[in-house]
Amino acid sequence: MKYIRNLFLLGVVSMLAPYLISCEDDDNGIVIPVISVSNVSPLDNAESIGYNPTFTWEASADNFENLKFDFYIGTEENKLGLRAQDIKDTQYKITKNTVMKGGVTYYWKVVAKDGFYDNESEVWSFTTAAPDVPVIESPLDKSLLFVSEGDVLLDWTDSAGPNGETAIYDVFIDTVNPPVNLATSFSGESEFNATSELTPDQRYYWRVVSRDGLGNSFSTETFSFDYLAAKEPVKPELSEEVEDGVLSLDESLVWGVALGANTLDVYIDTVNPPLNKVASDVTGEGYVVQTKDTPSDINDIKTFYAQVVAKNDDGESKSEVISFTPQVTGVYTDVRGSESLDYSWVRIGSQIWMSQNLRTKKLTTGEDLEKIIQPTSADYPITASTTTLYYDEHPADNGPIPGYPSFTAPWSDGDNGRVYSSKVPRNALIAPEGWHVITDTDISTIRAYVPNASDLLDEWYGGTDSYGANFLIAGYRYNNFTDDRPFGFRYVVEEGRVALWINPIAGTNDVWELYPAGNYRSYNQGNEHNRMFGIRLVKD
């Protein structure tokens, strides 16, 4: 037991006379009144206690008639909160039903006080009964129910209050989620015939709330079911996210709720009705159209037709056919920390290519790449052990180059972009999400669509072509300086081809080269530390 004595000025000691008892010793000392308080119920460490227990305690004091009590409770033993004060009785009942929760351990104590002195009980604990939450038994979530099968019975487990109180059930049924329409309230059997609340060919959401007389309430999960007039799915309503008939890059075909459908198939084709199935057994409410689904280019913008087929075990139903043309050009904004760059892109067959070379100075995390500093031919900073990621900028940025009038600024900050060391295209953080450095597969695909490289180049220095690929060289950068490559850039080679890094696989260090004469070539650069080239990105 702990005793606490309030401090008073000596001049008011006489006021305490009714509460003081003189000792028999010569000092005529003052004896502190005895106050005792101890908990009675709920018992310490009791379990399965209801949510509105009555707390009782015992107390004694020399001046018992002056005692009042403060009641403390909380979920942490050392952080109890004052719930009630100046209680005159030796019991207290929490009457606000939302205070206590099911399955929670609570701690409590009582402080007895007579106006001048006080004493507190031990801290006891108890655990409330786990909530008797009702559970839906039928129909199960996402069930298919048919008018021909008769009444729709909603069934759930029985529920009762923590002290055995009779439950009142509130049944919510609605076409929106979460359901807010209260269909009925009753006590008794945990079942409800919902047929009169339903209209065929609708999706319904439902839940049950169990209440007791003390104000406690518990809800089931929200389940759904489709209530159908026929056993095959309801015809899906297909729409598309288009403006002026153009389906934007990465946009979706959307059909919303497909009532009665287990899965759907998606068809996209250049014929009407479409015959080419692009996706099977889709379970959602939309499909993101892939680039491969709508092969097209700026010279041949095709019209595509789309349809979805809803399926279940008893049959299928088809949506109306819609038509659209795919977006063939656009702009991607690449944000890397403080850097924000716009890149044009173009659709070429079943691929989306950026039509500008990479010109970033950062990884996608915003971390800086390092610019090469090479004051003399012997000062090339890249060695076999170098892990630093480098870029460099073409001398054309600094003014005209004698003998090469087509080399003009802006170069590095224009379509040509910058050159990068070989470890840069290998780094997973060089391409933004949804894009990648060109691969051998990308090259094979575009070569099948455009067999002659000259059709993608036109004049190399202009970068114009009928497909809008705009292939340009960022630079052909060597590790040293010679008469034909001052500052490391070999102008005569740059004038006759485009060279871009290929996203490498183990053991390779390849560059893809395109020539105005019409041929393609993948060339292994051997010593990967010697040269730097541009990077072009393709959409995943």
TrEMBL record:
Residues 346-539 form the Fibrobacter succinogenes major paralogous domain. InterPro entries: Fib_succ_major, FN3_sf, Ig-like_fold. This is Fibrobacter succinogenes major paralogous domain-containing protein. It comes from the Bacteria. It comes from Allotamlana fucoidanivorans.
